């Protein structure tokens, strides 16, 4: 039979107490971290219509490993590579596209819809980027993409709300009409004609701005021809 001295009892008790404290502190830290990460997720996601990119999560203090755990537990939904949503969020596709590619601007038929100059949502998003920007393959495959000289990229740049109420970068009505005319060979004739007609009926149209933009995009003569026929 092993004889245990009083000093050994004291030593064992100290070790057990030490281990207990270490385990207790570890559990508290883990739970505290998870709670904070939950708050971070909600704060970031709610600010972005229930959506969050990997980059936003990481900048908010969440690791990619934790993102995976939240997906596994059902607290986050993986919408597609690099994009997550809260379980009860309705995904705004246009806003999601912008979150992952903040250098794009919605243009042409997408801008017609956002400006209230078209009744139907386009089946495919159309975006414009500066000619010195390289778009990822995922955007090229999903969108109709146009390129413009960097010095003309910000002409008419504004923001519009999507159907879900989220703000996205978009060109104003006048710039959109110029884009439609400039790219008319790539568009359906019905889209071009309807765009001019709807713009002419718009109460918020700004003809002074339109005729200021038109020479910059070399569509002044084309614009006059359409306006003479349709108005």
Structural shape: elongated
SS-derived structural category: alpha+beta
SSE topology string: HEHHEEHEHEHEEEHHHH
Helix content: 40-55%
Mean of residue pLDDT values:
84
Order of strands across the main sheet: 1-3-2
Would you identify the regions where 5 or more consecutive residues have pLDDT less than 50? 20-37
> How many structural domains can be distinguished in the coordinates?
2
* Major sheet attributes: 3 strands, antiparallel
- CA-CA gap between termini: 109 Å
Question: Strand tally, please?
Answer: 8
Number of helices: 10
Rg from alpha-carbon coordinates = 28 Å
Approximate strand percentage: 5-15%
Write the layout of secondary structure elements.
Blueprint (H helix, E strand, L loop, with lengths): L5 H42 L3 E3 H6 L4 H10 L3 E4 L2 E3 L7 H8 L4 E2 L1 H7 L11 E5 L6 H6 L1 E5 L8 E5 L5 E5 L1 H10 L6 H13 L5 H7 L6 H11 L1
Helix pairs in contact: 5-7, 7-8, 7-9
Description:
With about 230 residues, the protein is of the alpha+beta class. The chain folds into 2 domains: about 5-85, no CATH class; about 95-230, no CATH class. The chain is about 50% helix and about 15% strand. It has helices at about 5-45, 55-60, 65-75, 95-100, 110-115, 135-140, 175-180, 190-200, 205-215, 220-230, and strands spanning about 50-55, 75-80, 85, 105, 125-130, 145-150, 155-160, 165-170. The protein has a 3-stranded antiparallel β-sheet. It has a 3-stranded mixed β-sheet with strand order 4-5-6. A two-stranded antiparallel sheet has the order 7-8. Helix 6 (about 135-140) links the parallel strand 5 and strand 6 (about 145-150). Helix 5 (about 110-115) packs antiparallel against helix 7 and helix 7 (about 175-180) runs antiparallel to helix 8. It is elongated. The termini are far apart. Mean pLDDT is about 85; it is low at about 20-35.
